[in-house]
Amino acid sequence: MKICALLLLALPVLAAERTLDLTPENTKIEWTLSDVLHTVHGTFQLKSGSVHFDSDTGKAGGEVVVNVASGKSGSETRDKRMHANVLESPKYPDAVFTPDRIDGTVAMNGASQVKIHGNFRIHGADHEMSMDAQLNATAEKMTAVLTFAIPYVAWGMKDPSTFILKVGKSVDMKIEATGPLH
Description:
The protein contains 2 helices and 9 strands. The chain is mostly beta strands. Strands 2-3-4-5-6-7-8-9 form an 8-stranded antiparallel β-barrel. Strand 7 and strand 8 form a beta hairpin. The chain has helices at 2-16, 76-86; strands at 17-22, 27-34, 39-54, 60-72, 94-103, 110-122, 125-137, 141-150, 171-180. It has a single domain, classed as Lipocalin. The protein starts with a helix and ends with a strand. 14% of the residues lie in helices and 54% in strands.
């Protein structure tokens, strides 16, 4: 009888720990960079991702890996310069986000808005960062829309601006993902 009572008490603790699995098929990564003439839009592809979190404590972990070399803007010439001069994707082929906590309450059934905090490794360097996250969960799956900015010039990447063409010093990112929640 005591064992059954202990198991029943442990169930809420176990239920608070959840994992969201991401795949390239269920994840869309878009970026936006402004310049004086127009705004450039592009994409990246997810390599892999799994985020685990405790909805009661806010602790998080896992890893989300983005294929930097997959970056596209719709212009082959611009993409070639972006990969060779700014991202140096042959040398730094991946960007990795490792979450460590979630600020706010994750609703396990319904919508919630939180901040996901962690470490973002890009271009060979680690950077502390927070992402705004709009989440919508059911018992089986979660949909997430994450937005954040990457101050790439401040983080040591080359500014592609020229004397005539001036571009923003930060890239706006948006990630939309839906995955199984277990």
